């Protein structure tokens, strides 16, 4: 068997002893390894020697003139891999029989998505002549209404592999591994925020087939948008109409309520006063911080076990794993930095062991929600589940 050729990596040490090793894939996409502190892995990584098709053209955004929303049309995403077996897992380390996306064994790996909704031609699209590429020309340009408006979907979509193992989720990782992923999220948020044309960074995890997950491998994603997302735009409008410290008022109100799930030194988890979903919980820092890149090492250190505690409680609600979307809402890159506070919004459509909430007429068409589970009841159930999970589970060893 031939020894794989090794690549030359750009190496840095980050917080908590996490080591970042940066390289590129065969088609030029970025690949960054994040090694656990005390990792058993060596410093070298294999070169990606695959022969790959050219990267797809950057997608196009179309303006919905009725709402002001930009809709990305990314036909390249139609042929994504659907629920492969372990022998064809594109997120597992490469083997002779599986030419996957990651050439070497890893702890945590981040790479540019091969089928992105935004990008990949970001640098070229927003270069010296944006008019030639039809790239967005700033937030005022994107806010203008008009029929038939299009722009290039500049941006970046990245995959974050939490583990080299084929199955699992963030909640099945060790505290050490969770801390490595949090460091990776913070590092990528900082890096992506410096790219031209980027307005907001969104780390998230989709978990479960009921959510639409196409890969069972434990992973999440990071989107770097060329606009401020519609939800954040609404948040900015609410802040403008109320108070610049609206998030602090929300936190204090929730902390005084029966909807608190748990509270740490730096973070509080709560079911929000106007929760939409059968299961919805927010996790918010106690001080104002716009994004993960601005959190302190102490805040990240506490977040790792607290977030795992929350996710394991979510899974303890029923006898089978709970599908969810874990969404890290961050302030935009250029606006609202002093007012929009970082927070996690975890939602699940699961309203009973064998029932899901589907977004039908009122919610899907009119955006008018009706909730079946009172938030206070949801908080009590989640507190009980977290208590059960703390007695029934021990922290698993890091995936190595």
What does this structure look like?
The longest helix is centred in the middle third of the chain and has 19 residues, at 175-193. Helix 7 crosses helix 9 (375-392). This protein is 24% helix and 23% strand. The protein has a domain at 231-392: HIT-like (HIT family, subunit A). The protein is globular, with a radius of gyration of 21 Å. It has 400 residues and is an alpha+beta fold. A twelve-stranded antiparallel β-sheet has the order 2-3-4-8-10-12-11-16-17-15-14-13, sandwiched between helices. Strands 7-6-9 form a three-stranded antiparallel β-sheet, with no helix packed on it. Strands 1-5 form a two-stranded antiparallel sheet. Residues 124-129 and 396-400 have low confidence and may be disordered. Strand 18 and strand 19 form a beta hairpin. It is built from nine helices and 19 strands.
């Amino acid at each position: 068997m031939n020894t794989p050729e090794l690549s030359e990596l750009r190496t840095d040490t980050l917080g908590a002893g996490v080591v970042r090793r940066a390289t590129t894939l065969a088609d030029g996409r970025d690949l960054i390894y994040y090694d656990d502190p005390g990792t058993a892995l060596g410093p070298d990584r294999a070169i990606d020697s695959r022969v790959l098709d050219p990267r797809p053209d950057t997608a196009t955004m179309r303006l919905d003139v009725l709402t002001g929303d930009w809709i990305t049309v990314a036909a390249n995403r139609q042929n994504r891999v659907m629920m492969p077996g372990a022998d064809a897992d594109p997120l597992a380390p490469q083997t002779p029989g599986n030419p996957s996306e990651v050439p070497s064994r890893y702890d945590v790996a981040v790479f540019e998505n091969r089928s992105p909704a935004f990008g990949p031609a970001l640098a070229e699209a927003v270069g010296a002549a944006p008019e030639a590429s039809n790239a967005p020309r700033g937030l005022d340009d994107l806010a203008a209404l008009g029929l038939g408006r299009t722009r290039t979907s500049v941006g970046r979509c990245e995959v974050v592999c939490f583990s080299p193992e084929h199955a699992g989720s963030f909640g099945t990782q060790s505290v050490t591994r969770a801390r490595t992923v949090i460091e990776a999220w913070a590092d990528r948020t900082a890096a992506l925020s410096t790219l031209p044309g980027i307005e907001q960074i969104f780390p998230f995890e989709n978990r479960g087939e009921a959510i639409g997950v196409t890969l069972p491998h434990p992973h999440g994603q990071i989107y770097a948008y060329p606009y401020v997302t519609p939800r954040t735009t609404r948040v900015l409008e609410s802040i403008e109409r109320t108070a610049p410290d609206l998030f602090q008022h929300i936190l204090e109100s929730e902390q005084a309520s029966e909807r608190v799930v748990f509270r740490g030194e730096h973070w509080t988890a709560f079911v929000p006063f106007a929760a939409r979903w059968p299961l919805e919980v927010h996790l918010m820092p106690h001080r104002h911080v716009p994004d993960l890149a601005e959190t302190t090492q102490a805040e990240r250190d506490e977040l790792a076990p607290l977030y795992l505690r929350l996710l394991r409680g979510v899974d303890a609600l029923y006898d089978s794993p709970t599908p969810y979307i874990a969404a890290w809402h961050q302030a935009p890159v250029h606006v609202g930095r002093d007012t929009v506070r970082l927070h996690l919004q975890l939602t699940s459509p699961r309203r009973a062991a064998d029932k899901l909430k589907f977004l039908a007429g009122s919610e899907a068409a009119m955006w008018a929600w009706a909730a079946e589970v009172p938030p206070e009841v949801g908080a009590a159930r989640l507190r009980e589940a977290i208590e059960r999970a703390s007695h029934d589970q021990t922290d698993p060893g890091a995936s190595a």
